[in-house]
Write a structure and sequence with these properties.
1 helix; single chain; about 100 residues; Immunoglobulin-like; eight-stranded mixed beta sheet; mainly beta
């Protein structure tokens, strides 16, 4: 699913992902943010236990700190949220992270 997140530079940012029919634990769950898909450098990386938290079966929270969003210059970035169940890989969420300037700085 394509999704655009609009975030003010330097703000904390959190979202949840819910899978209605997920009955088993994920093998991996990770999020990567880059300037462009073809870039070699990952600007932000999240994984289970490192910015991604299991809330209940099938429900996960992804957290970005003010330091992470503050390190990105205002612009559009691309991201993928990828999960693995057993040996099957899914990308249930992908799109753009729009970092916006704030009027307070």
């Amino acid at each position: 699913m394509l999704r655009i997140f609009n975030v003010k530079q330097g703000d904390e940012f959190t979202f949840t992902v819910t899978f209605k029919n997920l009955q088993e634990d994920l093998t991996t769950f990770a999020m990567g943010v880059k300037k462009e898909y073809t870039d070699d450098t990952m600007l932000i990386q999240k994984s289970l236990g490192n910015g991604i938290t299991k809330i209940t079966t099938g429900k996960y929270r992804v957290d970005f700190t003010p330091t992470e969003t503050g390190a990105l210059t205002p612009d559009f970035y691309v991201y993928d949220l990828r999960m693995t169940i057993g040996s099957t890989v899914f990308t249930p969420l992908y799109g753009y992270l729009n970092i916006q300037e704030t009027v307070f700085e």
